[in-house]
Specification:
By secondary structure, the chain is of the alpha/beta class. It has a single domain, classed as P-loop containing nucleotide triphosphate hydrolases (Rossmann fold). The protein is about 50% helix and about 5% strand. The chain is built from 13 helices and 5 strands. The protein is extended. It starts with a helix and ends in a 19-residue tail after the last helix. About 0% of the residues have low confidence. Its main location: Golgi. Homotrimer.
Length: about 350
């Protein structure tokens, strides 16, 4: 009789557990359904409470994007995507070619370039790209300012890539003879012999590219230049990605600037643009070489800028591409507008 009583109690307990689990599942389901309905409701009611200029298409057609590309950061691959999309998405792509591949413009050319870019309506919307330092359009008195974007790379990786690029070329133009063609000295040997081609000062390029046209920007090891580069990166660039996360950089741009980059991520994944330009016969440096390079102040400062850019990019990416806890994208709208 006692066993029967225990069985009865156990059965009742099982029934209670099952009922509790059922109601917990139902509550979770209803909460999820409520969250989705709440989101849809917010979307419906946010449409008349979001302000968009009536001539929104005209505003987007006035867009100018400048990509002041740093050499050997994967810029050719990214620009290849832009050239492939420009006809489909109806925008122009223009290459900025400065005499003798100089990275800074004369003062008169700075002014003329700024005026030309902002007033040349026949080619808008447009993406300009070229190896040039950041240019502050506000200083040059323009009524409108372009959107700046860029990519940055680990400084030693960029230097090693450029070292072998000058000697072995790349797969983009394999038959073009570079100025160090025939030089078989490895980067490790170059560092060991303290040759000028592998001098750490040669890494001083990404800092000045973000710093700008001031003479102080181009002095290797300038702390002022590093701080100016950081400020410009945060205050004047829409997005700065890193070479190692090219796909995410393109996805962020597609989300932020669909007028230019709609379909860019899919195109990048399904085309040959992800490795459009690779340096031929590149050897990775050994640990002794790495340790020696990393002792230099220039590497430390260039790497500080890289780490700063990487952290900021991850922050931007997380908030742009991540979903809210209920699985939907972030929205904004206005409410409690008074007087009615």
């Amino acid at each position: 009789m006692l066993n029967v009583h225990k069985i009865w109690l156990f059965s009742c307990l099982c029934v209670v557990v099952i009922v509790v689990l059922y109601f917990q599942a139902e509550i979770a389901r209803l909460e999820d359904k409520y969250n989705k309905l709440e989101y849809k409701f917010a979307q419906i009611h946010s449409e008349p409470r979001q302000f968009f200029p009536k001539a929104i298409e005209r505003v987007e057609d006035d867009l100018v994007v400048i990509y002041n590309r740093v050499p050997k950061t994967g810029s050719t691959s990214f620009v290849g995507v832009a050239y492939d999309l420009c006809k489909k998405n109806h925008f122009k792509v223009l290459h900025i070619n400065i005499t003798a591949n100089m990275h800074v413009m004369s003062l008169s050319n700075q002014y003329k370039f700024a005026q030309n870019v902002t007033r040349w309506n026949d080619v808008k919307p447009a993406l300009y790209h070229g190896h040039m330092a950041f240019l502050n359009f506000e200083r040059l008195g323009t009524n409108s300012r372009p959107i700046f974007i860029n990519l940055i790379r680990k400084p030693l990786d960029r230097l090693v890539s450029y070292y072998y690029f000058l000697r072995n070329g790349d797969n983009f133009r394999p038959h073009l003879v570079r100025k160090k063609h025939g030089d078989k000295m490895t980067f490790d040997e170059c560092v060991e012999k303290s040759q000028p081609d592998c001098d750490p000062n040669n890494m001083w390029l990404q800092v000045p590219f973000f710093c700008g046209h001031s003479s102080q920007c181009w002095k290797p090891g300038s702390h002022w230049a590093l701080q100016q580069a950081k400020q410009n990166l945060v205050n004047h660039y829409l997005v700065v990605g890193v070479t190692e996360e090219m796909q995410d950089f393109i996805s962020v741009l597609e989300a932020a600037l669909p007028r230019f980059f709609k379909g860019a991520t899919e195109h990048y994944l399904n085309s040959n643009k992800s490795h459009l330009r690779q340096t031929s016969s590149k050897l990775e440096p050994n640990q002794d070489t790495i340790d020696r390079i990393q002792q230099s102040n220039v590497w430390k400062m260039e790497n500080e800028l890289y780490e700063f850019a990487l952290e900021h990019f991850k922050f931007v990416k997380k908030r742009l591409l991540s979903k809210e806890p209920n699985g939907v994208a972030q929205i904004y709208f206005y409410e409690k507008i008074r007087p009615k």
